[in-house]
Give the backbone structure.
Amino acid sequence: MTAKTRIWTPIDFDADGKQVDFMRVPHSTDLSAYGWIPIPMACIRNGDGPTALLVAGNHGDEYEGQVALTNLIRGLNSQDIRGRVIVLPALNFPAVAAGRRVSPLDDANLNRSFPGRAHGTPTEMIAHYVSDVLLPMSDIVVDLHSGGRSLDYIASALVRPGRDVNEHRSLVRLMQIFGAPISFVSDGTGGGGSTTLAAAAQDRGVLAITTELGGGATLSKRGLSLAESGIRRLLDEMGILQGAHVEPPCATRFMTVRGHDAFVYARNVGVFEPAAEVGEVVNEGQLAGWIHFPDVPMHEPERLDFRSSGLVACRRVPSLTQRGDCLFKIMTDLAIV
Ligand SMILES: [Zn+2]
């Protein structure tokens, strides 16, 4: 038996109505011996039915999801739904408060911490609570991401490959309903692999869809609009949203990320000059960019090429670059089952 969570909340997940309070993560510090970290959480319920778990702020510097879910909490009432919606607009709240991808309390990346540890650091405790308490109550989880400070992303939705044909079809259907311009299937190579919220959900048999809605630690108007309409479509599809007008999804283009060659990484410390933009189609061997060395002006800049052909899904935002930083990721078209 796994250890019991230390996180608690006054929210009663079985009560009808709208409750807005906090997940309380015990955190004992110099100035707050018995204190807790407030993770904002809403539970909106109206009788029996499916449960949707809606998450943003898994990474603190990604904003479209945070704003979409904050608006949703204010706008959605129990009479609008059947079943239950659990909303967490700022899941790794210490990272959200700091405007950072990782938590300043333990330097941990929540979406690399699943399934978490009941008695671990604050970030590990949050991952464990989601894995052991919230996911077992849920039929679907939507985890709203963007590129954060370091990446700018094409507006997209992604799922992990289904473990069987039926699961795969269900996941693909979620992406069609969400209606991002691009939808892609990824096992997390180059990203979080099996340490993500989506991976923890899949292990527990919960359908999970993740998004990338923009990036650069700013808020994309288009990304926000897609998050809001996509969530409503998913809630409608699940039979949770009742009697509301829901605009139909736009057609989506199915793509995939093929292994490590889909990525371009910096091999040196320097200033990154990109030679392609997000959404551009590129070919293998084409110039991807340069790394310049202003500290050694006679040093020739280093040329970097794309290692595969496809569509530029994301590119690095900050110019100052360290060895190993991801500069580009490429997607290719996928025939869908
Ligand atoms: Zn993220």
Notes: The chain has a mean pLDDT of 96. Residues 260-332 form a domain with the OB fold (Dihydrolipoamide Acetyltransferase, E2P) fold (CATH 2.40.50.100). The longest strand covers residues 36-46. The first helix runs from residue 64 to 75.
